[in-house]
């Protein structure tokens, strides 16, 4: 499959306050963010010309920056308008939007107090994170060797680039084995999340999901929980041990990229794509497209 490199595309990127031609949005090789992971970002989707939950995503971006000890040098309103401008300039009524903020090259070393914070926003077409056919029958997940870190070992409440290093390693390992993704446990050995999405299980008409105490409480996660409440489905947030997966009937993932994706298999455990999973996926699709 031929891939179009992300540094060599047509279009525009919002870069430190201005829309610039795509190929001109570049940073210096000695930027602090590149060497020390002082980078935060967001993933957003636009549907029918509107970025879903834009304000919530921007608010989390700013909060992630503060957790990493830096302030984004724009207002949240300015970033919201910039994201809309990017999608319009690239003619993307439906697409993916990626704001990112990072420390620049003014200092090189662990300390970074004098660095300037840079911000860019890009947008591109990204129809589906997982193959649509697989989403219908349920994707296959391996169980990752890497575990999500404890909150006192990493800034787990932020959407920071460094936290995704073990996600990349876990997804690569899973794909080499023929899986689509990986389920990650946390530092206690409890079920946490997939490499880029939250996880839900269903048993006897109730939804069970891990407490997000060492990983992101996703915006899509909260949205789908709200849809489940509207349907009168009970949601239980709790610690889930890996062996409990044997007793669950259904499983699905949620995330901006993954949306609502059914899971058919996690390691030795199998699930059906049942009515609750299908209903919530339908509810979510209607909501994001302004019909819900």
Task: Walk me through the structure.
With 292 residues, the chain is α+β, with helices and mostly antiparallel strands. The chain has two domains: 12-124, D-amino Acid Aminotransferase, Chain A, domain 1, CATH 3.30.470.10; 132-288, Alpha-Beta Barrel (D-amino Acid Aminotransferase, Chain A, domain 2), CATH 3.20.10. Helices cover 26% and strands 28% of the residues. The chain contains seven helices and 16 strands. The strands form two sheets. Strands 8, 9, 10, 11, 12, 13, 14, 15 and 16 form a nine-stranded mixed β-sheet that branches. Strands 1, 2, 3, 4, 5, 6 and 7 form a seven-stranded antiparallel β-sheet that branches. Strand 8, helix 5 (165-176) and strand 9 (181-186) form a beta-alpha-beta unit. Helix 2 packs across helix 3. The mean pLDDT is 96.
What would you report as the Rg, rounded to the nearest angstrom? 19 Å
Average of the residue pLDDT scores: 96
Number of strands: 16
List the uncertain runs.
none
Shape: globular
Task: Return the CATH topology of the largest domain.
Answer: D-amino Acid Aminotransferase, Chain A, domain 2
* Share in β-strands: 25-35%
CATH class descriptor name of the largest domain: Alpha Beta
Largest sheet: 9 strands, mixed
What is the CATH architecture term of the largest domain?
Answer: Alpha-Beta Barrel
CATH superfamily of the largest domain: D-amino Acid Aminotransferase, subunit A, domain 2
């Amino acid at each position: 499959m031929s891939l179009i490199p992300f540094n060599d595309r047509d279009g525009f990127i919002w870069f430190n306050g201005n829309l610039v031609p795509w190929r001109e949005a570049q940073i210096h090789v000695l930027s602090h963010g590149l060497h020390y992971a002082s980078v935060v970002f967001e993933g957003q989707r636009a549907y029918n010309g509107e970025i879903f939950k834009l304000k919530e995503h921007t608010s989390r971006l700013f909060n992630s920056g503060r957790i990493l000890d830096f302030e984004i040098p724009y207002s949240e309103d300015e970033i919201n308008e910039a994201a809309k401008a990017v999608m319009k300039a690239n003619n993307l009524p439906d697409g993916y939007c990626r704001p990112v903020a990072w420390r620049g090259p003014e200092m090189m070393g662990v300390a970074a107090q004098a660095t300037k914070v840079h911000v860019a926003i890009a947008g591109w077409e990204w129809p589906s994170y997982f193959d649509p056919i697989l989403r219908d029958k349920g994707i296959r997940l391996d169980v990752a060797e890497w575990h999500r870190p404890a909150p006192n070992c990493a800034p787990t409440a932020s959407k920071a680039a460094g936290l995704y290093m073990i996600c990349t390693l876990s997804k690569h390992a899973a794909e080499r084995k023929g899986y689509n993704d990986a389920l990650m446990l946390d530092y206690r050995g409890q079920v946490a999340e997939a490499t880029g999405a939250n996880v839900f299980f269903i048993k006897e008409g109730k939804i069970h999901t891990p407490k997000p105490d060492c990983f992101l409480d996703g915006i899509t996660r909260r949205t789908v929980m709200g849809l489940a409440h509207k349907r009168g489905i009970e949601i239980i947030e709790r610690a889930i041990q890996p062996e409990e997966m044997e007793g669950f009937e259904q499983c699905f993932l949620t995330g901006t990229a993954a949306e609502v994706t059914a899971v058919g298999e996690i390691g030795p455990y199998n699930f059906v794509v049942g009515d609750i999973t299908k209903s919530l996926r339908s509810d979510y699709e209607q909501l994001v497209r302004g019909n819900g």
